[in-house]
Specification:
It is built from one helix and ten strands. It is α+β, with helices and mostly antiparallel strands and 159 residues long. The radius of gyration is 21 Å and the shape is globular. The termini are far apart.
């Protein structure tokens, strides 16, 4: 009888642990935003990941959406992409702008505390369902001192 009770206790403990792990995995994937950027042709590419608590999407007004991600460690970096006339899945060209309601498909990026302008690129919305926005992006920007190339950008943001 003692062996039966110990066996049942072990099975229950394994089953409980498995259920707990599933919940934490789904929470982890509900918000992510990352990209690889290179500030000039002489620099090595840098991988950027937004802080999970600083990633969100908002609908500032009808038929628009804004995707925002940032991290504020030693080199503050933030990305703000605004899409006007948003229609869900599809490809949207990105331009330099203030990422405000009056701009059409604009992006504002700050890397290591420096703003970049003259931005051109593209945002691909791969999925827009009841739970998530999933997208990919890439663009190029410049300022007085250097050029910024952003590649392999992606996000998954829970609604």
């Amino acid at each position: 009888m003692r062996k039966l009770i110990l066996s049942l206790s072990a099975v229950a403990l394994v089953a409980f642990s498995a259920c707990k792990k599933e919940t934490s995995d789904s929470d982890y994937t509900s918000k992510s935003m990352s990209a690889t950027y290179q500030r000039s042709s002489a620099d090595s590419p840098t991988t950027w990941n937004a802080a999970p608590g600083k990633i969100y999407a908002e609908i500032p007004f009808r038929n628009s959406v804004r995707f925002i991600g940032s991290e504020y460690k030693t080199n503050p970096t933030s990305l703000n992409m605004f899409i006007n006339n948003y229609k869900g899945k599809g490809t949207y060209p990105l331009y330099q702008g203030s990422a405000q309601q009056t701009d059409s498909n604009s992006v504002k990026i700050t890397v290591a505390g420096r703003d970049y302008t003259s931005i051109t690129g593209v945002l691909h919305i791969l999925d827009d369902n009841a739970e998530y926005y999933i997208g990919r992006f890439e663009f190029t920007g410049s300022n007085l001192n250097d050029t910024l190339m952003v590649k392999y950008g992606s996000f998954t943001i829970a609604k």
